[in-house]
DNA sequence: AATGAATGAGGGTTCATTCAT
DNA sequence: TATGAATGAACCCTCATTCAT
């Protein structure tokens, strides 16, 4: 039906591809040198186009930043909905959520340390990002309270636990490198385990841990 | 012997006080709005002086940023040396170090989320900060390996454990507020406990934890 | 073949024309009010563009200054190579060199008194300019020594002679005005004659001098 | 009559000594790094006093600059009046004037390349300096015309001759160093000779030149 | 007379953004 | 759609000058 075996994309598709390229390169550069130390000229040069061209694909520099926060929000949302779908005790749901979230951030956002740039968001986006974050923190808190209630978690200060988790997770982009020794799967599994051990009433079943470790070792290569 | 009960300070002392005021206000503003979004005019205005005056106390804007990184380095150093002085098993030393470090950051650096601004450091300072951080990470890794060797810690990937800890700790400035509910002592104690439970072979003795909790509750007020 | 009789220039040519306009206007302003007393705003305003636009054509203010020193260096180089190509006694080569140099400075650099601003050069350029100047002084010294050796020049202190010549020449931009009575040709011819009479063993042959004078008179108009 | 063998100076004398010290150091620094690249802080530091103190001795930075131009004007005036007092042909008076002037500039103003900073003078001083310079140039022109009239000088363009002389002379501060090989006496004698040979109808008497050279050799040590 | 802290004007430079081609 | 030239708003930093002590 379509010519060229669909290799020719619609102009809308091409537009999106180009926009993604802009975002990807910007994310890379922002992560490497920081948002403020990266000029759009740098991004354009890296893409081999002129600066003005970028404005065909993004409204302005701040929009690029917002895209990453938006994406992070989506990943967080996914992590919750998939964990809820799987069900289980509070501890189990918490574990699934964290694992999913860490994996998603690492896998999809790559080295996007951009998420730390918060003040550079335009006020309205900053507000949205704040609300998103608050909502997720609250969802986490509820998950922890649920775990405490069903006996799967120790009675801890949920707020502080969440802050601790979020810190560990948000720091990942600072040291994660796609080309490094640690794979997203290994990181997600091991870090989740590390974090949750401080919280669960009984440590995860030995069998499970062993399996996870084996997987990680396989991934590591 | 001295009049005014020494309330009258030498000019060198006054100079230092003023410099401290500059640093404090700058740190506050940087934490609030970010390093790049804060102009020295803002800082000066907040202090009720003119911009030029600031330059009597700091060399330039980047020096201010470096001061905070330098201070963080000192706190880290202290945390290690005091823990080493106290001695104990690898797990105990690790606990002491973390507690000291978290407490120091929270107490002395206040809300200094400035530590996240890394790219804004001048190249030479960035290098120094990098080296400092690497050295401390290495020292932590060695502590963990010691703990694993003496049986006080589980056999975990030391690098990943440290990254997790550092993330949690470095995130503190993002949510800590001196006027908030959580005191530095409580944070240091509880977060250390949370993080270490993922690592220690046997949980800390109940008595110890209970005491810590009691202390924290007292502090909370 | 080409339309508009090639009056339509390529964008690279336009670019160069604009850059030249910037340099010319800057040189004019610097000569008039001095390098430090001329802001780039002044230059931009005189060109009817905004200050930022200038940075499309020059890297910074100091680069403008350097351009003039570089150009002066080229003129000096030309003056030597063309004189060497013509050959003759030491006195003759010295005469040709000086004449060419004075003419070049006056004609091509116009009223560029900018050459006196030496301390404003960036250190690396100052070094380059120093080396250039030293090299040319040395070349002049050797020319004089050659002239002394071949008997065409009196035995004078070559250094002091060169300093004297250079002073007279470098002063030209201070009083030369393209719209004034004295033409570049006249200045070059007459000043060279004046300076060399202090040096040559025998005054130039009367015929030659007469011819030169006649030429100058013709030029003066 | 006076105690302390007059070693104790009146306060007015002390004041003048200090002012001279300020001017001397400023002149030194200005010559070395240029007027604009030298801050009053530099000058004060070199003198071991605070910046504010300088303002007890000079009105402002521009006054310092003017002092040097004023002094140069005085030296020029002296050179004329002493030459006129000695009398002689136009050529002889011109020679005496130039010699005196070069010697004075070198001897009294030392390495004061400051005289090149003209645009930094305050407008009123710039005007005064201009008038001074014009007056001296005119006086020189008249001297040359006198020499042409009395047959002691060739018929040259007086303006251009003067410009040439002034250039050579004003350049002296650029290369003269009090600690260098060339003494003020030698410079004054030799440069005057060099310059005048281009102008005089008959070269200076051999005996005279020989004497001058002998003196210079003695000075050179 | 000396200090040194404070000031405030001014200039160089960067860069996100716009727009005509 | 792509270009690249132009813009103008910021902002850092310097430094001559003033002034209270």
Summarize the SSE layout with pairings.
The structure is a homotetramer of 221-residue chains.
Chain A: H1 11-33, H2 40-47, H3 51-54, H4 61-86, H5 90-109, H6 123-149, H7 158-175, H8 184-197, H9 206-220
Helix pairs in contact in A: 1-2, 4-5, 4-6, 5-6, 5-8, 6-7, 8-9
Chain B binds a DNA duplex (21 and 21 nucleotides) through residues 11, 15, 18, 39-41, 49-53, 55-56, 60-61.
Explain how this protein is built.
Four copies of one chain form a homotetramer. Chain A is mainly alpha-helical. Chain A has two domains: 50 residues, Arc Repressor Mutant, subunit A (Orthogonal Bundle), CATH 1.10.10; 159 residues, Orthogonal Bundle (Tetracycline Repressor, domain 2). In chain A, helix 1 packs across helix 2, helix 4 packs antiparallel against helix 5 and helix 5 packs antiparallel against helix 6. The C terminus of chain A is likely disordered. At the A-B interface, helix 7 and helix 8 of A face helix 7 and helix 8 of B. The structure holds a DNA duplex (21 and 21 nucleotides).
Largest sheet, strands/sense/barrel of chain A: none
Helical segment count of chain A: 9
**Radius of gyration of chain A, Cα only, in angstroms?**
20 Å
CATH topology of the largest domain in chain A: Tetracycline Repressor, domain 2
- Structural class of chain A comes to mainly alpha
């Amino acid at each position: 039906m379509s010519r060229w075996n669909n290799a020719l994309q619609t102009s809308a598709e091409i537009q999106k591809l180009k926009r993604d390229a802009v975002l990807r390169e910007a994310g890379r550069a922002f992560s490497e040198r920081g948002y403020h130390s990266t000029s759009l000229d740098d991004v354009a040069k890296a893409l081999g186009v002129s600066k003005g061209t970028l404005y065909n694909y993004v409204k302005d520099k701040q929009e690029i930043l917002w895209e990453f926060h938006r994406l992070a929000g989506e990943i967080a949302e996914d992590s919750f909905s998939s964990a809820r779908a799987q069900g289980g005790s509070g501890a189990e749901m918490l574990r699934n959520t964290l694992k999913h979230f860490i994996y998603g951030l690492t896998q999809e956002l790559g080295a996007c340390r951009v998420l730390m740039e918060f003040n550079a968001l335009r006020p309205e986006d900053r507000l949205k990002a704040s609300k998103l974050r608050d909502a997720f923190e609250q969802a986490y808190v509820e998950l922890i309270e649920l775990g405490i209630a069903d006996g799967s978690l120790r009675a801890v200060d949920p707020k502080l636990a969440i802050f601790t988790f979020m810190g560990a997770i948000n720091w990942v982009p600072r040291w994660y490198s796609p080309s490094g020794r640690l794979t997203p799967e290994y990181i997600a599994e091991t870090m989740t385990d590390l974090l949750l051990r401080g919280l669960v009433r009984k440590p995860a079943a030995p069998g499970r841990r062993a399996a996870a470790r084996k997987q990680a070792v396989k991934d590591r290569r």
